[in-house]
Each structure stands twice: as structure tokens, then as C-alpha cells.
């Protein structure tokens, strides 16, 4: 029987997080961390319970284990994605990069590998909720800023420390896609499909373009601060942040 831990349901500022994890010790640990950090944990222990609860009492976010006893977590993710864009963070012991890519391509917002620490889990939750809120409620100002990097979408102009950066159309397309999904890992396949279409598969071309972008944007392309590599998975743009001293 699913356990709804909703002691503070009367406080609207608290966000409900659905935990789909069959290992009760880990489920209880995550629930404790969430509750002590002003979230409302809702605990379920099977895939069917997760789907039912996500539909009947939609949460703000789902923490989803892949190794559920009845339905594999990937199937749960695909089922939920048929009707909901709720942020889903996969929490799994599966460390194979292909599993991460598969989950992200299926619609997961993030992938946390067990074991993990309290602060890492909370940071991932905050980031996923922040990104989701930004997508659902976009700002009217069509611009993006991260540190000294500034993008004006209407003018299709990229500047760094106030100086215009000249990008090729493909380079700008990559920067546009990553910045509009800032903080979220975009898999190689998803970027390639967005830029070159569903039948393209040249990841080398993508790597070359990202290397060229980094030479134009980064002080040290070998240690980038704007376009971050998720090894074996893809890339993400650093989230909105004020410029130094700003």
C-alpha cells in the first residue's frame, strides 16, 4: 500500500515529490531528506503505484528507480510521458552510460547514480524544478545570460563581456538549443536530431562544432564553464547566473 506522507499539506509553498523506490531503506532515506527540506514526500514501492499516484495526485517532481519489482522504471517513464511533463529524476544503481542516454532520451530530466549524498539529491531536485518552472513560465524578455555570456534571441546575437561573438549558423543553433534548455543535459542524439534531422547520426560533426564554439566562448576550452560535457551522454549549458560583479 502506498504511503502518502503529507503532514504539511496545508502549506501551499511545499512541493510534493513522488518517490518510486522499492528498497524501503532507500525510500525512507529520501523521504526523510525531502521532509526535512520543506518538501512533501509521497512514497510508493512499485511501478503501477507510481503511475496511479502520478495520475491521481500529480506531484511537482518524481524520483524514479529503474529496478522496480513489477514494471521496469523505463516503462513507467514512458507511460508517464504519454500525458505529463512532470520533472522526472531517475535514481538508479545502473551506471552504464547507455542506460543514462536511454533514460534521458525517453524524457527523464536528470539521472542520479546510487549511492548519492543528501546535497547532491537536493541540488538535482532544485535544478529540475527551476528549469521546469522556467519552461512553463518563460520570461517575456527573450534573452539569456550566464556569467559574461549574453544571448539576444530576437537579434540572434551572442556577446561575451559585451563583445559580439561570430558563430556559424550551426554553431548558433547548438548554442540556442543548449541555452533554451540551460541546466539540462541534452543527449548527443537529441542535439543532432534538432540540428540535422531525425536521420542524421554524425556525432563527430557535433563534437567538432562544440569544440569550435568553446574556442570562441571559453577562456580555457579544455576547462569549459559555459558548455559542459556529460561524458558519454551529451552536453548542457550552465544555468542563468549573474555576471561577475553584477
Name the poorly predicted regions: 5-12
| Biggest β-sheet description | 6 strands, mixed
Quantity of strands, as a count: 13
Average per-residue pLDDT, rounded, comes to: 86
Indicate the CATH class of the largest domain: Alpha Beta
Strand order of the largest sheet: 1-3-2-4-5-6
Q: H/E series, N to C?
A: EEHEHEHEHEHEEEEHEHHEE
Question: How much strand content do the residues show?
Answer: 15-25%
Shape: elongated
Helix/sheet category: alpha/beta
Number of helices: 8
CATH names the topology of the largest domain as Rossmann fold
Characterise this structure.
The protein is of the alpha/beta class and about 250 residues long. The protein folds into two domains: about 5-135, 3-Layer(aba) Sandwich (Rossmann fold), CATH 3.40.50; about 145-235, Orthogonal Bundle (Arc Repressor Mutant, subunit A). It has eight helices and 13 strands. A six-stranded mixed β-sheet has the order 1-3-2-4-5-6, sandwiched between helices. Strands 7-8-9-10 form a four-stranded antiparallel β-sheet, with helices on one face. Helix 6 packs across helix 8 (about 205-215). The termini are far apart.
How is this fold's topology laid out?
Elements: E1 3-4, E2 15-20, H1 24-35, E3 39-44, H2 47-56, E4 61-64, H3 73-81, E5 88-92, H4 97-105, E6 110-113, H5 118-136, E7 143-146, E8 149-152, E9 157-160, E10 163-165, H6 169-180, E11 186-187, H7 188-196, H8 203-217, E12 227-230, E13 234-237
Parallel strand pairs: 2-3, 2-4, 4-5, 5-6
Antiparallel strand pairs: 1-3, 7-8, 8-9, 9-10, 11-13, 12-13
Helix pairs in contact: 2-3, 6-8
Amino acid at each position: 500500500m502506498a504511503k502518502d506522507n503529507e503532514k504539511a499539506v496545508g502549506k501551499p509553498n511545499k512541493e510534493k515529490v513522488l518517490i518510486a523506490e522499492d528498497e524501503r531503506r532507500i525510500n525512507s532515506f529520501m523521504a526523510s531528506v525531502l521532509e526535512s527540506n520543506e518538501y512533501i514526500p509521497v512514497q510508493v514501492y512499485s511501478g503501477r503505484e507510481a503511475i496511479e499516484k502520478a495520475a491521481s495526485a500529480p506531484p511537482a517532481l518524481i524520483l524514479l528507480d529503474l529496478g522496480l519489482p513489477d514494471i521496469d522504471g523505463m516503462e513507467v517513464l514512458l507511460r508517464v510521458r504519454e500525458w505529463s511533463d512532470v520533472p522526472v529524476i531517475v535514481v538508479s544503481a545502473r551506471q552504464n552510460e547507455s542506460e543514462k542516454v536511454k533514460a534521458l532520451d525517453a524524457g527523464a530530466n536528470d539521472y542520479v547514480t546510487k549511492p548519492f549524498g543528501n546535497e547532491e539529491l537536493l541540488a538535482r531536485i532544485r535544478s529540475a524544478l527551476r528549469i521546469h518552472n522556467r519552461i512553463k513560465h518563460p520570461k517575456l524578455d527573450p534573452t539569456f545570460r550566464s556569467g559574461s555570456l549574453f544571448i539576444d534571441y530576437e537579434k540572434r546575437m551572442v556577446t561575451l563581456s559585451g563583445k559580439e561573438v561570430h558563430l556559424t549558423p550551426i554553431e548558433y543553433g547548438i548554442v540556442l538549443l543548449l541555452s533554451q534548455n540551460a541546466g539540462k543535459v541534452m543527449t548527443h542524439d537529441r542535439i543532432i536530431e534538432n540540428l540535422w534531422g531525425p536521420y542524421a547520426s554524425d556525432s563527430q560533426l557535433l563534437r567538432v562544432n562544440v569544440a569550435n564554439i568553446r574556442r570562441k566562448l571559453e577562456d580555457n576550452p579544455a576547462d569549459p564553464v559555459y558548455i559542459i560535457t556529460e561524458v558519454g551522454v551529451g552536453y548542457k549549458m550552465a544555468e542563468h547566473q549573474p555576471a561577475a560583479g553584477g
